[in-house]
């Protein structure tokens, strides 16, 4: 059933090109994005005043990514909340608010409670869900499925990647309907979107190099992931992938926040993973990398092809191919998933079933 792979997690990572394709292809027709299951007219899309994205864990990391994408592309204000916080914080929402709940299992107790709370307060709820017919899928006003197929490994990979695609499609649709992007702009983005599966495939094929690098860090005590903007959201997911399966402590930090605390934890040899996929932030990131490196950190960078300037501030660089600036998460996360996987493998951890964790969290 693992199809020749040592673990479900590895198999599911390799299924990502397909999960991505299966999630976008039914929604692109004649060069336009059609999301029938959204159940919203163009008029209703124009009337959205605020989006609230509510989820847990990796799905919440997709939420953090979505803030940059929805705001950047469609100019709709976005709040992102952990479901366990949202449900008890008396959130402000009304009929101009679109609540988007994101969940692989569709059964996460806090996310389901947040959905019910939102409906009670008069907001419209859209679910981005992987498991067909799950509780969240049944109770949401509308549901957009991620077509990742069954995910068995506790650490999510392909469902996460499919959730990102759902967010890109929604943001592009909203932006186009609201006149924030032109027909030409939409066409270019769709071309970049459709190029992602092959690019992900290429990054997966770099596994040997990543395994070799990971094997040098099997005894790491702490790892820090830093990024700015959408790269901070990518860092959060990279950090979670590593810690949940390898049991190595790791933290994601907004790079600009380093000097407000975390930098005091950097010692000789501490591994810092710097994610820099946003051209307008390269310079700022490079200076943060120099700061940690001068304090003894070993810096691994994930950046976009062509940004060779990064080499002066990094000890090891992984390049991702060029894509639209809003889609970089889909590519940058691949080496980070592989990194977490190979560290856990090298440490002899139970990769598919990390201790204390459940695939579906049905109690709060
Ligand atoms: C991490 C992971 C969890 C889930 C979280 C939400 O790899 O899988 O953080 O993302 O428990 O689960 P769903 O998406 O089923 O609501």
Automatic annotation (TrEMBL):
The enzyme's E.C. designation: 2.6.1.16
Keyword Cytoplasm: yes
Active site residues according to the UniProt entry: 359 (for fru-6p isomerization activity)
Cellular localization per UniProt: Cytoplasm
Gene Ontology BP annotations: carbohydrate metabolic process; fructose 6-phosphate metabolic process; protein N-linked glycosylation; UDP-N-acetylglucosamine metabolic process
Domain SIS: 41-180, 213-354
Catalysed reactions, semicolon-separated: D-fructose 6-phosphate + L-glutamine = D-glucosamine 6-phosphate + L-glutamate
Keywords: Aminotransferase, Cytoplasm, Glutamine amidotransferase, Repeat, Transferase
GO CC annotations, alphabetized: cytosol
GO molecular-function term, one example from the UniProt record: carbohydrate derivative binding
Quaternary structure note: Homodimer.
Known role: Catalyzes the first step in hexosamine metabolism, converting fructose-6P into glucosamine-6P using glutamine as a nitrogen source.
Protein name (Swiss-Prot/TrEMBL): Glutamine--fructose-6-phosphate aminotransferase [isomerizing]
Organism this protein belongs to: Mordavella massiliensis
């Amino acid at each position: 059933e693992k199809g020749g792979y040592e673990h479900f997690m590895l198999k599911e990572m390799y299924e990502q090109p397909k999960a991505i394709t299966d999630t976008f292809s039914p929604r692109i027709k004649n060069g336009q994005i059609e999301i029938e299951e959204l159940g919203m007219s163009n008029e209703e899309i124009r009337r959205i005043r605020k989006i609230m994205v509510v989820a847990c864990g990796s799905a919440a990391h997709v939420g953090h990514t979505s803030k940059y994408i929805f705001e950047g592309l469609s100019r709709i204000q976005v709040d992102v909340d952990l479901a366990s916080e949202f449900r008890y914080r008396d959130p402000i929402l009304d009929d101009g608010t679109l609540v988007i709940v994101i969940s692989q299992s569709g059964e996460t107790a806090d996310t389901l409670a947040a959905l019910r709370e939102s409906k009670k307060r008069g907001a419209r709820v859209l679910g981005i869900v992987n498991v067909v017919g799950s509780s969240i899928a049944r109770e949401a006003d509308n549901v957009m499925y991620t077509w990742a197929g069954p995910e068995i490994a506790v650490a999510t990979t392909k469902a996460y990647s499919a959730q990102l695609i759902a967010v890109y499609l929604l943001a592009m649709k909203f932006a186009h309907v609201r006149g924030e992007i032109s027909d030409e702009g939409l066409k270019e983005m769709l071309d970049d979107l459709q190029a992602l599966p092959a690019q992900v495939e290429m990054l997966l094929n770099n596994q040997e190099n990543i395994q070799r690098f990971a094997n040098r860090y099997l005894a790491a005590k702490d790892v820090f992931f830093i990024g700015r903007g959408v790269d901070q959201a990518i860092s959060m997911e990279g950090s979670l992938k590593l810690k949940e399966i390898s049991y190595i402590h790791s933290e994601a930090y907004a790079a600009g926040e380093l000097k407000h605390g975390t930098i005091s934890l950097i010692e000789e040899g501490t591994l810092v993973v710097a994610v820099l996929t946003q051209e307008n932030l390269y310079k700022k990131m490079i200076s943060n990398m120099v700061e940690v490196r001068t304090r003894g950190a070993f810096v691994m960078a994930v950046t976009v092809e062509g940004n060779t300037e990064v080499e002066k501030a990094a000890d090891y660089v992984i390049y991702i191919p060029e894509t639209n600036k809003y889609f970089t998460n889909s590519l940058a996360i691949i080496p980070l998933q592989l990194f977490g996987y190979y560290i856990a493998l090298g440490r002899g951890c139970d990769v598919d079933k990390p201790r204390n964790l459940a695939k579906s969290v049905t109690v709060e």
